[in-house]
Design goal:
The complex is a heterodimer of chains A (236) and B (473). Chain A is α/β, with parallel strands linked by helices. Chain A has helices at 43-51, 72-75, 94-104, 111-120, 137-150, 167-182, 194-200, 223-235; strands spanning 3-14, 17-28, 32-37, 58-63, 66-67, 79-82, 155-159, 186-191, 203-208, 211-217. In chain A, the strands form two sheets. In chain A, strands 6-7-8-3-9-10 form a six-stranded mixed sheet, with helices on both faces. The longest helix of chain A is centred in the last third of the chain and has 16 residues, at 167-182. Chain B is mainly alpha-helical. Helices cover 69% and strands 2% of the residues of chain B. A three-stranded antiparallel sheet of chain B has the order 1-2-3. The two termini of chain B are 22 Å apart. The chains are: A alpha/beta (236), B mainly alpha (473).
């Protein structure tokens, strides 16, 4: 399997803080890499560097072999992104939101196809034509998932996507990630959810103060062992 | 991409009940201002046409009189309203509507609406120009202040950018979407105003009027576009919508309230105008140095008399082939007119200098640029007023000199008894006034035009380019 997401000595410094201390990472197609870490550990900074929203102080991030900082627009074709809290446009329906974001990515779907993406992401069929302003967080998150899936990207960047979702929605989300992974999508998920990481992850990374302190194969240990290990790192 | 987001902004805004309520209020104000403006225009125009016709008839049908008596009887010039002045009253409410034209005297225009109104007129009038210049920009600010900040606050900016759209594309898409919304607010007023404007009987639909109207609309569209782009650019600078709103309201207050008053005050302080009493005294003093048409013992009149006697080779005034009284009157008129004109041009120059400060301030403020252009196209600016005043003075001068000529050629020296019939007065062409062309009006405001276009170019280039520096995370 080819490497689609790569960081080489990726470093990001802000005026008063070293956010990322030379990250080295490779994620292959079909792999789900879960990155655990406390708030401020550098998880979102890593995602923002892969998205090209911030420039690295040194080192480089690559998507499909292209350096993100110098191919900011081109790399967007290969990736989809779901933030922690998908807000969308409240005056548009779920269907209209999906149509808009898909058209921005260059896709022109029929109404039926859009409905299929939304329902496939777990949104109730009766809700697709209602305005998003009346949606719950979980429903909005599902539209966000549909937007990402409809983009047919081979890299999926997720920033704490299950935060605030109820257990059923989280479970549906996990199943969706596994389906995408089987289809060859490389998934990078920053999360606090140790259980979900163990459940869906191919590998689990632990980040502390901008440094990737450990990377484990999810199949090598159970959720309790992972939690214990994580807490050990956090308290050292 | 740009089209999709522009469409989304358009639809989202139409579904926003708060904005729709605000738009309906502005639209109603715009319509009300149009109807009120048209009514006021029609009433004033009719009054002035009737008054002009009446004084013309009175002059033409005057009783048998001595020509110099007729020169003192004089006539009136009523300033016709410019055809689209109902859109922008400009200075019309403060400048006079009529000039009394008589021999030896150059009167300024009198009977302005402000003179005949209560002090409430000091608060300004609800005109189409007021709504377009002050309220629509405010509406634009309320529409656009959160254009980018809201995307940041809700996190949609990251999703949008991750879809492959650039910040500049996003900005242009927002600008396109908001432009459609503003068009939706303004267009119905224009559509509804058009039948009112063009269906009135007797409306003079000349190409020049249409050109003025077209330019009037184009200048306002540019003005609105500048505010839309500026609002989107300012919105991109900040992380919070409230900060962007406060900044934009500050810009609005600076542009629409503070700077216009400051530039007017600066102009008045830098170029002080003499009082009317002072100007009258100066004119009187200089006129007194010339020939007095009514004083036979005047030394300068004596010199003129000797010159004429020499010219015709005669010894007495009675022997002259022309009436010396008429010649003396004509010489006096020529002198007093020249003196008055010099003082009037000096005074006009001071006002022009004051106005120029305001025109230069257009480079700091698109509001001032559009205000000058708007008044210029509506024919209600200072230069249109001066144009009328000059035409009235030209007419007065030729009327007085025409009557002096009659006295000089048809009456004998010393004859104060002969009365000429009213047929003589009918031979004088009545006063008519043609509003100058749109090109003339535009030429008077080239500085403002350049300033407005410069603003457009600057906000679209420097402003939108700076959006690339927007902090995304």
């Amino acid at each position: 399997m080819s490497i689609v997401l790569e960081a080489k000595k990726l470093r990001k410094e802000y005026q008063d803080k070293l956010a990322l201390k030379g990250l080295d990472l490779q994620i292959r197609s079909g792999e789900i890499f879960c990155l655990l870490g406390q708030n401020g550990a550098g998880k979102s900074t890593t995602i923002n560097l892969f998205l090209g929203f911030i420039k690295p102080t040194s080192g480089a991030a690559y998507i499909n072999g292209l350096e993100v900082a110098s191919h900011t627009t081109k790399v967007k074709e290969y990736l989809a992104y779901i933030p922690e809290n998908v807000m969308l446009y409240p005056n548009l329906s779920g269907l209209e939101n999906l149509a808009l974001f898909s058209s921005l990515a260059g896709f022109s779907y029929t109404q039926d196809e859009l409905v299929q993406y939304l329902v496939g992401a777990g949104l109730p069929a009766e809700a697709v034509r209602r305005r998003v302003g009346g949606y719950s967080k979980g429903m909005r998150q599902k539209v966000g998932i549909a937007i990402a899936v409809a983009k047919q990207a081979n890299v999926l960047l997720l920033d704490e996507p299950t935060s605030g979702l109820d257990p059923k929605a989280s479970n549906e989300f996990s199943e969706l990630l596994l389906r995408l992974s089987e289809a060859g999508t490389a998934i990078f998920m920053a999360t606090h959810d140790i259980f979900r990481s163990k459940e869906v992850g191919t590998r689990v990374g632990i980040m502390r103060e901008g440094e990737l302190v450990d990377v484990l194969a999810a199949s090598d240990l159970d959720a309790n062992e992972l939690e214990k290990l994580y807490l050990n790192y956090m308290h050292v | 991409m740009v089209r999709s987001i522009a469409q989304k902004e358009f639809i989202s805004t139409l579904r926003d009940s708060r904005f729709m309520a605000l738009s309906i209020i502005v639209l109603l104000l715009l319509l009300a201002a149009t109807v009120v403006g048209l009514h006021s225009y029609s009433t004033l125009q009719k009054e002035r046409e009737v008054a002009q016709q009446t004084v013309n008839d009175q002059f033409a049908n005057s009783a048998d009189r001595h020509p110099h008596r007729m020169a003192h009887y004089g006539s009136y010039a009523f300033r016709p309203k410019s055809s689209i002045s109902f859109l922008d009253f400009g200075l019309d409410s403060y400048t006079g509507a009529s000039v009394y034209m008589e021999a030896h005297r150059q009167n300024s225009a009198n009977f302005s609406q402000a003179q005949q109104s209560s002090s409430l007129i000091r608060f300004g009038e609800m005109t189409v120009a007021f709504v377009l210049q002050m309220l629509i920009p405010l509406l634009i600010i309320f529409l656009c202040f959160a254009a980018i900040t809201q995307e940041k606050e809700t996190g949609t900016l990251k999703i949008l950018l991750s879809q492959g759209i650039s910040l500049r594309q996003l900005a242009w898409a927002k600008i396109a979407g908001y432009s459609r919304v503003v068009g939706l607010v303004v267009a119905p007023a224009l559509v509804l105003a058009s039948p009112l404007l063009f269906s009135r009987g007797g409306y003079d639909l000349e190409a020049d009027v249409l050109l003025r109207l077209l330019l009037f609309i184009v200048f306002y569209l540019i003005y609105f576009f500048i505010f839309i782009v500026m609002s989107v650019v300012v919105s991109s600078w900040y992380q919070r919508s409230s900060t962007a709103l406060v900044t934009l309201l500050g810009i609005w207050i600076f542009c629409c309230v503070i700077l216009p008053k400051a530039s007017a005050n600066l102009g008045a302080n830098l170029y002080t105008t003499p009082t009317k009493a002072q100007m009258d005294a100066d004119v009187h003093e200089e006129v007194a140095k010339g020939i007095d048409g009514h004083n036979a013992h005047d030394q300068r009149a004596e010199a003129l008399k000797q010159e004429l006697l020499r010219k015709y080779g005669v010894k007495t005034l009675e022997e002259l082939p022309v009436n010396f009284d008429g010649i003396q009157m004509a010489a006096g008129e020529e002198h007093s007119s020249r003196v008055y004109q010099e003082h009037f041009e000096e005074l006009t120059g001071i006002f022009e200098n004051q106005n120029r400060i305001s025109e230069y301030a257009s480079f700091l403020n698109p509001y001032l640029a559009v205000r000058h252009l708007s008044m210029g196209m509506a024919g209600s600016d200072f230069r249109h007023y001066i144009h009328f005043q000059n035409r009235a003075e030209e007419y007065r001068y030729h009327l007085a000199q025409g009557l002096n000529h009659i006295q000089a050629t048809q009456l004998k020296y010393g004859d104060k008894q002969t009365r000429l019939s009213s047929d003589t007065w009918k031979s004088f062409k009545p006063f008519t006034y043609e509003t100058p062309s749109a090109g003339w009006a535009l030429g008077n405001h080239l500085l403002s035009l350049v300033a407005l276009l410069l603003w457009l170019v600057l906000v679209c280039t420097v402003g939108v380019n700076r959006i690339n520096n927007t902090q995304i995370t």
